[in-house]
C-alpha cells in the first residue's frame, strides 16, 4: 500500500501508507480514481502547503472495510468522498457559509486522495461520502466534488434563463461551468482563454462563442456578441489577477462577477464607480458544501455533465509529478487529468 507524498516543487515520493486501522464508525476505501484539481496544482507548483503531505481530494473508490457502527455503507460499495466537513453549528454555518467554518479545513481524509488506500473518518462517512450508482463510472464519481464546488458558486450568482454568461478560463472548472450555465438556460455562454485546444474543448461541451484572449480584445468581443449589453454573469475561472479588472469592464449593468479562482496579487485596479452607478456585484465562492453533493450526483446521472469529453489524460499514482507538470503547462493539449492506480496516458 503506497501513497504519493509531496515534498517540494517537482519532488514527489512514493512511500508506504503505514497503519490505516479504522475505528468502528470509519471506512477504508481503495482509491479507484482521484482527479487532479487546480488547487492541487497550485499547492504543488507554488508551494503553498507544508510538506510532507499527500494531496488529492476528488476521490472515487471502493469500500474494502467498514466499522461495526457504519450502517449506510458495506464492503464492495462504490463511493465518492470529499475532504472537508463543516461543524454545522458555528456562526458561519448558521449563515450558510459552510466553507468558512473553522472546522472545515481542519478535517480531511487520511492520508489524502493520492493514495492507494484511504481512511475515511466518521464525519466524512456521515456528511461527504455517497454511493455511486451502477450507471456512473468511477471517473464520473471523481467529478462529484469539483462539480459540487461549481454548484456552490452558482448558488452565489442567481443565474436567470436568458442571461448572457461570460466565463474567463476554459480549464476543467470552466468547462463544468459551461455545462451548468447551459443547464440553467443561459442564452449565450461566451468563453475566453489563451489556449486554442481548451477553447475547442469549451465548444465541445457547449460554449456558444469562444474568444482567443491573447489575440482578440475580450471586452470588444463581448460587447459585439451581446449587442453592447455586456455579460449578466461573469465567472472568473482562472487564477489570473488582471481578469478581475477585465470582468469589471465586461459585466452588464446590474450584473454579477463570480470570483472562482485564487489571485496571486492583492492590489488589483478596478473601475469602482460601477458599484454605485451600475449596481454590479462581486461575489466569491470557495470549495463546496455537503448540500452540493446530491445535486452534483444527480446532474451526472442525468447526463447534464459530459465527463468523457473532459477527460484527456490518465496517469498512475507514481507519475503524479509528471501529471502536474503537464496540467500546469497552458500550451499543452490537456484538460482534465485523472490519477488512477494503473493509469496511462
Architecture overview:
This protein has 345 residues and is α/β, with parallel strands linked by helices. It folds into 2 domains: 2-146 and 288-340, Medium-chain alcohol dehydrogenases, catalytic domain (Quinone Oxidoreductase, Chain A, domain 1), CATH 3.90.180.10; 157-284, 3-Layer(aba) Sandwich (Rossmann fold). It is 28% helix and 25% strand. Strands 3, 4, 5, 6, 7, 14 and 15 form a 7-stranded mixed β-sheet that branches. Strand 1 (2-8) and strand 2 (11-16) form a beta hairpin. The protein starts with a strand and ends in a 5-residue tail after the last strand. The model has no long low-confidence stretch (mean pLDDT 96). It holds the Pfam family ADH_zinc_N. Its cofactor is Zn(2+). InterPro entries: ADH-like_C, ADH-like_N, ADH_Zn_CS, ER, GroES-like_sf, NAD(P)-bd_dom_sf, Zn_alcohol_dh. Belongs to the zinc-containing alcohol dehydrogenase family. This is Sorbitol dehydrogenase.
